[in-house]
Amino acid sequence: xxxxxxxxxxxxxxxxxxxxxxxxxxxxxxxxxxxxxxxxxxxxxxxxxxxxxxxxxxxxxxxxxxxxxxxxxxxxxxxxxxxxxxxxxxxxxxxxxxxxxxxxxxxxxxxxxxxxxxxxxxxxxxxxxxxxxxxxxxxxxxxxxxxxxxxxxxxxxxxxxxxxxxxxxxxxxxxxxxxxxxxxxxxxxxxxxxxxxxxxxxxxxxxxxxxxxxxxxxxxxxxxxxxxxxxxxxxxxxxxxxxxxxxxxxxxxxxxxxxxxxxxxxxxxxxxxxxxxxxxxxxxxxxxxxxxxxxxxxxxxxxxxxxxxxxxxxxxxxxxxxxxxxxxxxxxxxxxxxxxxxxxxxxxxxxxxxxxxxxxxxxxxxxxxxxxxxxxxxxxxxxxxxxxxxxxxxxxxxxxxxxxxxxxxxxxxxxxxxxxxxxxxxxxxxxxxxxxxxxxxxxxxxxxxxxxxxxxxxxxxxxxxxxxxxxxxxxxxxxxxxxxxxxxxxxxxxxxxxxxxxxxxxxxxxxxxxxxxxxxxxxxxxxxxxxxxxxxxxxxxxxxxxxxxxxxxxxxxxxxxxxxxxxxxxxxxxxxxxxxxxxxxxxxxxxxxxxxxxxxxxxxxxxxxxxxxxxxxxxxxxxxxxxxxxxxxxxxxxxxxxxxxxxxxxxxxxxxxxxxxxxxxxxxxxxxxxxxxxxxxxxxxxxxxxxxxxxxxxxxxxxxxxxxxxxxxxxxxxxxxxxxxxxxxxxxxxxxxxxxxxxxxxxxxxxxxxxxxxxxxxxxxxxxxxxxxxxxxxxxxxxxxxxxxxxxxxxxxxxxxxxxxxxxxxxxxxxxxxxxxxxxxxxxxxxxxxxxxxxxxxxxxxxxxxxxxxxxxxxxxxxxxxxxxxx
Length: 871
Ligand code: NOJ
What we know:
Blueprint: H1 2-10, E1 14-15, H2 53-64, H3 68-75, E2 87-88, E3 101-103, H4 121-124, H5 130-147, E4 151-152, H6 177-193, E5 197-203, E6 215-217, E7 221-223, E8 227-229, H7 232-239, H8 241-248, E9 253-256, E10 260-261, E11 264-265, H9 270-280, E12 286-289, H10 298-302, H11 324-331, H12 337-353, E13 373-377, E14 382-386, H13 397-407, E15 410-414, E16 426-430, H14 471-481, E17 485-489, H15 495-502, E18 507-514, E19 522-523, E20 526-527, H16 539-547, E21 553-559, E22 574-579, H17 587-595, E23 632-634, H18 643-648, E24 666-675, H19 726-729, E25 769-779, E26 785-794, E27 804-813, E28 818-826, E29 832-834, E30 839-841, E31 847-852, E32 858-864
Parallel strand pairs: 1-6, 3-4, 4-5, 5-9, 8-10, 8-23, 9-12, 16-17, 16-18, 18-21, 21-22
Antiparallel strand pairs: 2-3, 6-7, 10-11, 13-14, 15-22, 19-20, 24-25, 25-28, 26-27, 26-31, 29-30, 31-32
Residues 86, 104, 153, 201, 290-291, 460 line the site of 1-deoxynojirimycin.
């Protein structure tokens, strides 16, 4: 570790960490403290299960032709900024196979021009609309495809959102695993139907930015990566749940995260990668490391890592744990050939699974420059060529982006103020969040500032805006089209001007925001994670200044998650409140659509809004913990996050999970439960096949030497050897030391199958339908509208949450029309994870369903008869 710290220092990765004044949450007497992760070997090999058979066969045929060098090239990144994309592996010129390109982000194509900025995941989650999830995925995938990207680095379901201050929560969907599970599955299908591999990330427990990686900090010195210490039940019932959905939906790649889990670095955690992901969940694609999240060579390969990103040990070190060293490890027999073959096969299987062999354009942009001609190897200043073709890949996506954003806008309060007519005599628009960033929408690198209206968070989970419609311009268009008056004050601190305008207008629309992002950028003292849950730019004071003088004040919140509304939500002068999330490029048009009733809001909160941070559970860890190299982040609250925590502690939130109003009203009636005979649950048994080896490799070290016609380009990572003496060829100073590798890690013989496994996603019987539930929903108002009908389930046991989401659908209903809500209840939905048997069981406790308009507006209920399944 010391060596790594020095290396990080050497390349200037010394970070200044900022932190709010909080007490450290970790309880040192917790049984989770210093938790250990058990070993599990060998790494399961792909077998082509589920619908992967054809892709698997094609991948095997491809990999069988490859030399050892070529296989290594497929698995090892070529180094930071060494090629067009944020991550690239080596090419296989002999077969005309171009280098694979991995590109951020979960909301669009990062570092490229003429691309769209879609609503963030945490925003579109509020639509509760599977069609929107799919369409957004498809359109994002299409844009990646047309720019020549092979792997889109998204969607994100880790962080899940354990704590609302987690800096990257907005890249994912919702702290509810069921909602997130549906969102990720549809997104993966969308991206992959467009012909691009989805990389679901970050696996797993990457719930905060502080200390996510080892580093040297100004205030603390060296601190190792944080360890998220989590028990098995919490893993299965909460954090793994959406990953299972992603695997079942066929995600071609999964990114292992920066943090440790139970004190084992994630990308070399054999339990979580081998046993859980590739074993129990039957993942058929490949595991890719987060950028510099790999901390070992052979160990990470044995623990299931298939691709290292960006390939160098630390950015631009010129060294790799793999590359040359991976070649050597197979040549000297440390790593069995079958493991490298498996990694290469998994990568190629994902490639064929999504049809990259059919619809594949050459990468036509470069992440590191917008110049048309430049160095393709930007860091190495090599390969000067046409790098940016400036291809516009946006098609007509602006239309659906606007629709999605409007469909994801939650109406939290409405005293009849909305919808506006557009004929208000004088409209006042207030707040920095209503207008332009003076540096332009992309003026701060990776959106690392909070100037102007907030339409995405900051960090790698971003794309460049092709334009950004501000709320002010969209509102102004409506008002001026009607010949009315509009004034605006965009400086939150211009008190005199704010008061002067607020005292005059007929309606005041106040925009506030709260931002967060990835920890390599600190904005206003927030090191990625939020320091608090309040609105930025003294948003509360702004609302107060306006609403104390205008009795028709409408508040719009753009934010990465919950914002405390205590100071204004119940003010009489605040006549309406909207949560507009992070809407992407069409922000202004979308909010105007809702404000002026062109769209009737139907979104529901994908999280809870409480009255204090403490209500949500344990705080983030902002400071290291004495006596521990790695801060010990004990997930003591288990599965009780967000509404489950509020319910457990009997705290009444301000706006509960699932809450959202409409301009019309709905009523619920006629619940009915139809039982489906699914038969008993059969644990998976038997043995796997033996690990296949694909082709042979030469043992003659001369075959692996640097080709005489190749010049090393900067810090580019290659698979070759520079000596026939392996000690010399390896740049590992400890090469040749007598390591003992974990028992079983090289064993390619048939292995026992895992009872809770059996197919991608887990035991396929978990998806058996046990009940079909229906209910009638009537629109009682005068406007057509959408209602997100929600089904919650009580598992009934003393350790179970009061209720958990287990069904939803967004229904469009005409006035006076009644439509039927239908949802299936799966075996998985009524099961608990049983640690002793390492399987899902249906407990003996009575189970009940509730149907309603939010997690606290439950209008219908029914019992579930599960007697024949209960143990
Ligand atoms: C690190 C981030 O954690 C990950 O999400 C991203 O895909 C990579 N950097 C590449 O930019």
